What we know:
CATH class of the largest domain in chain A: Alpha Beta
Oligomer: homotetramer
CATH topology of the largest domain in chain A: Dihydrodipicolinate Reductase, domain 2
Helix content of chain A: 25-40%
CATH architecture of the largest domain in chain A: 2-Layer Sandwich
Distance between the termini of chain A: 34 Å
Largest sheet of chain A: 7 strands, mixed
Number of strands of chain A: 13
Largest interface: A-D, 48 and 48 residues
Amino acid sequence: MVKVGIVGGTGYTGVELLRLLVKHPEVTLTAVTSRADAGVLVSEMFPNLRGHLDLPFKAPDLALLSSCDVVFFATPNGVAMKMVPALLAAGVKVIDLAADFRIKDVALWSEWYGMPHACPELIDEAVYGLPEINRDAIRKARLIANPGCYPTATTLGFLPLIEAGLADADHLIADVKSGVSGAGRKAHVAQLLCEVSESMKAYAVPGHRHQPEISQTLSDQAGKPVGLTFVPHLTPMVRGIHATLYTTVIDRSVDLQALYEQRYAGEHFVDILPAGAHPETRSVKGSNVCRIAIHRPQNSDVVVVLSVIDNLVKGAAGQAIHNMNIMLGLDEAEGIDHVALLP
Amino acid sequence: MVKVGIVGGTGYTGVELLRLLVKHPEVTLTAVTSRADAGVLVSEMFPNLRGHLDLPFKAPDLALLSSCDVVFFATPNGVAMKMVPALLAAGVKVIDLAADFRIKDVALWSEWYGMPHACPELIDEAVYGLPEINRDAIRKARLIANPGCYPTATTLGFLPLIEAGLADADHLIADVKSGVSGAGRKAHVAQLLCEVSESMKAYAVPGHRHQPEISQTLSDQAGKPVGLTFVPHLTPMVRGIHATLYTTVIDRSVDLQALYEQRYAGEHFVDILPAGAHPETRSVKGSNVCRIAIHRPQNSDVVVVLSVIDNLVKGAAGQAIHNMNIMLGLDEAEGIDHVALLP
Amino acid sequence: MVKVGIVGGTGYTGVELLRLLVKHPEVTLTAVTSRADAGVLVSEMFPNLRGHLDLPFKAPDLALLSSCDVVFFATPNGVAMKMVPALLAAGVKVIDLAADFRIKDVALWSEWYGMPHACPELIDEAVYGLPEINRDAIRKARLIANPGCYPTATTLGFLPLIEAGLADADHLIADVKSGVSGAGRKAHVAQLLCEVSESMKAYAVPGHRHQPEISQTLSDQAGKPVGLTFVPHLTPMVRGIHATLYTTVIDRSVDLQALYEQRYAGEHFVDILPAGAHPETRSVKGSNVCRIAIHRPQNSDVVVVLSVIDNLVKGAAGQAIHNMNIMLGLDEAEGIDHVALLP
Amino acid sequence: MVKVGIVGGTGYTGVELLRLLVKHPEVTLTAVTSRADAGVLVSEMFPNLRGHLDLPFKAPDLALLSSCDVVFFATPNGVAMKMVPALLAAGVKVIDLAADFRIKDVALWSEWYGMPHACPELIDEAVYGLPEINRDAIRKARLIANPGCYPTATTLGFLPLIEAGLADADHLIADVKSGVSGAGRKAHVAQLLCEVSESMKAYAVPGHRHQPEISQTLSDQAGKPVGLTFVPHLTPMVRGIHATLYTTVIDRSVDLQALYEQRYAGEHFVDILPAGAHPETRSVKGSNVCRIAIHRPQNSDVVVVLSVIDNLVKGAAGQAIHNMNIMLGLDEAEGIDHVALLP
């Protein structure tokens, strides 16, 4: 059995890791930490776990975490980077669900995240944990930078076009809609039910932290810098991301449906829908799947890609466990092959 | 492996049975029927099943269903009773999620359901599938009448008080709130999002079919007829039932918390919360658990019991599979021990 | 024109007062105060007011407020009582939408609200602003205690039965469901969309501040203390209260439908539905109406009254303006006779 | 007083017309028709109108409607065109909220709407009722084609750029999100709460009827055919449209904020937000306003315009009454200058 620790178990990403890991057949949960709630039973804060988990939150103690085989960080940005060097030194594998190790350019990272980096020497080693691109590197990694939710849906949607050099990579548009759980479990007026239900809005149009993350990955795959306009929207629902992606295709004769099906043929967690389909976010609620459909309306040169995920699963906790499974040589789908809850 | 058939797989109860059964380690799905949609892939109607189930809907053919070990009916009321005699004769065990076999008084049944009964001779044999009351009978049953959603939450909430003779059984009040999925997947204006979201209403106050069902069970346990006022409400959410139950307690000195904890001590799927707690329906979303809290406000003689379930799981598909597990001698929790999806 | 001031304009009650008052034909808004947001344009915080209101928030200055004819307090409990004596002395009429003057027994008030009262000498003078009971007193009042949202829906629902002496007043049960806006616009995790949408729960079953408020009014009308069990529930919607009220009727021969219709015959803002109806909260969304239906299921002695309001209008801002209209001798419906927004 | 008739009063557009017109100071409602519900009180179907409207639905009789000054059609596509010639001949002014007269190219209309046109000779005369473009023509019109909801939000958002020749009009992208009320009040499984709440999806990506409507208007203003990719999305809320519009700007030096502010300077119902803002659909719920913000992220050449309306008001009933006011020489804002309901 794999001994697993979770640092920062009181947010939505944390409770989702717990939901999945308490049922993972190869995992023993050793520690769930929260400085503020140490001593409280985890299942008191999250009653869905009653009968499944008997641990209390503990203070995030290095000795405790060093006894784990794998530690997940479900913490705010800037926390993991302070503890990761010691954990790696202790032989622990680390998967960071925050953004500390996602951006390779440390100056760019500091600009977007507003702080100096605590261990820049580890950034190069960290593997960006998108299995559909980096499976081999993940297998050998000690430190995983788990992708953001918007980047997961957007990158998987654009990827086959970019890899094939078929998109006008100077003008990529990602219009992406997220459920409110993406904003986390924090006491903010802006996420009260009465502020966000029965309403729709774009936010952070001048600039959002996930823009450089997506650009970095797509530029790497394109072999040159891409031009990406990224507009996130807050949608009145709990879970789900719907990315609507636009680009101009360079060659209209290519069978895009076949291109996507072939690119993701071996992937357990990417599902290309039949031609003409429209994925719904509810079709992935609680599951680790990314569902994608490809359109070229009215036979024009504009490609419209529709890509949906559950932001807390494929966009966070599920993908993190997928990475763990790969790192440990387990069956990739172990513990995360759930059917979405519908309705 | 147990060969399972589902008659009527196109409603919410049907897709929930499928979500659970495709992952049940002892089950092989042999047939999913729908007269109207025969030939259509099940996963085309319910894309959450893509990658998990490859069957098409088939016409509800007796020969096909007779090859199963167990057949679930997730059909409108009045369908199962026409096919059950032949299936039982073929040695198939049957679990009816509709109401055909729930009421023992056939005249009363006809009055509430508006039709004559097609096989009254089987009503006595049918076992009311509430495991917490009828476990032994379920174990030997050929035919299970799976309880309704409102009756499950309400009956489990009142049960310890009634069994102990502690309630004023002439004046039981059940104020029960249900998510909209309880109304089924039918093309009715009344269940459009624009009709029921952002609103709350009571309905069927003059009389609801679940009133005689609850009364029958509680009267059986009380050993005399109970007086029950049952008021269902439509709540703007997809899943969940919250029953708020009121009665006058005859003896204020009894420790009700202890009474409930002892009554359900061995039950895997009933969870008595600590004194003072308030269960949320989301704590059971997608899970087979009934969570209950008991209050006696301001030390008066009025008891308030709060009881929550997921209407599609403990109130329908999950309880049906629980019954199957018991009938077949499997581990009771096999395939239905999911953690609720929160948030 | 009436010069109106609002103290505490940054909550949901405040913005609702503003929505109604900017269109009230007899009102000039003179001041909207907020200590924390002084200087900010009101319409910057509440963009629905762009084009309708050009005032900035101001600090709650006594001189400024003394220049008003009427001042509304839309503040947390305990604020109004500190400013009211000076405003009354300055000849200003005051309507407090919080609870400072609702409870006549000052010791009981302090017990429930956890603080000493700042001006107990004014409590007797304050008129409980439920026009359907206290119209004459309101007409002459200087100081109005505007009723709470739960008390408005519950009291109006029970009132005809209590006044007529027809209810078993020792065992009144009020099962009341509220939208989330009732919890206010505060940065609490418990009211995040991801915590309260798609879920239902009771809360404060051991005791809620509105219980003594309702009991006081009903006891006054009954001429003796009533026994009330009050259970509030949080419902996944923004606005609306649905009170489901239960009592045993002493005389089954009385025509309750006629009783209610006669009691509220002259009332502009109470609408008795036809026999057999079920009011929906959405039928009063944004309007000042209370809709009521009366049932006696299966001809038993249990009466079920269904009573719905918009908690922010008839349960707060609309009723406050109704009180102002009465105090000033205006048409009672002036400025608050809106049609509910449906859907 | 203006005598007004409404044909087809049982849908969401119909009830919204009624909500606004019963309070319009210059209007007397003379007839509300519904073939299927003739004889039923309008307020029985829509209880929000109780106390405001006493009419029953009547059969859509020509004589009855000919006695009106203005008739609104809130009917399915294809109904108005059969009755309009007779009404115009009788001297009645007509405002069609459906699509019968929106498309000038009758062959194109037939292609998208799947039927021959019943009175092609009137198409040229009909005025497209977007006041911000066609105010003068509306003033003199007998027949108004009231714009669709998506076209209103999209056209107003692109208009200043197109008129100024500043956009790359070959590659306009409109990613538009609509609440569910846009789909109407029909008994379809696809719009049940359990099908569309807690989910997001694009639909009709291969082609939607509003694409040619928007293209027609923008092409007219551009003086040449535009290339428009239009992707509608179904959003889990009742009301609201959020259009997110993308184009490449030809000249980066132009002050777009000033351009938009000047273009709409005199318009009562278009509100340009300050630079950097993000409009929310809830800020226009129940109001006739279109709120717009303009962004050029990271100083690139991609313009992002955010445009929000209430689909039932500015996108349907409110705009129709705005047109009526203009046609009759009334104050343009009469009866439709409501403050949005927030929260």
